[in-house]
Give the backbone structure.
Amino acid sequence: RSGISKACRYEPQANATYAELARHYDTAILPARPVKPRDKAKVENAVLIISRRILAKLRNRQFFCLYDLNEEITKLLIDVNNEPFQKNPEHCRKSLFEEIDKPALKPLPSLPFEYVEFKKAKVNIDYHVECKGHYYSVPYILVGKTVELKITNKIVAIFYEHKSIATHMRNHKRGAHTTVTAHMPTKHQKQLEWTPGRFLNWAASIGTETVAMVKNIIQKKKHPEQSYRACLGLLSLAKKFGPQRLETANGIANKTKSYNRTTVLSILENNADLIEQNQEEVQTKNINHKNIRGSEYFN
């Protein structure tokens, strides 16, 4: 990724991760002007030297691990830095570094830099935000707001309007939730009036199979609030396919213990529920014919 996310001659914007690295080591970022490579002529020349003196020597060699490659690069780099200058043979890169640069350097921070990423996310109705496939809670009053996430290998810190609102230990399990009980509402406001009872009452207006499906979806989650989006998505299928079809589809899914919206939607889109209904109608239909004797004949 580029070090500068937005190029500008006067106010360039550094990549957030790059800027965090600079803050950690207390150094400054001074970008070259756009389309002005001469602003960093010494850097370009250093790249050329390394390409010729190190990469060119290694281009035909094969390495089987990163450690061996780094070890060989280190040896060649020492040779480059110890080689005397042509115009000033009394000095080399290492001697000038020891004489000029090293005395001006500050001590390194006590802790090494930890790679960090930044992203923006919108808080869902279940007051969680998505990060790398996992969901982290924030205070429920921020539902619908856009927050900023600071992501390291161990921590996920969440900010709203530059203020810290939540910090979680990083969890790499995809599809799972990390929820702080304090973030959960004790009394939902208008946009958060969803409760298990409300979803079950809604399901009851459709049918018993739908109630069973909603119950199982809610019970699968540690916190009921984490199931609200799934329940909402399931019950909203009645608008598109009708309550009766949804009830039949839920019955089919319940038989296979597939308690999720994806299965129910697949049943509806493939008209599997209509086939089920037709079979039931054929089985329950009374057929009168002179060649059909009926069960009483055998008594």
Q: What stands out?
A: The first strand starts at residue 4 and ends at 6.
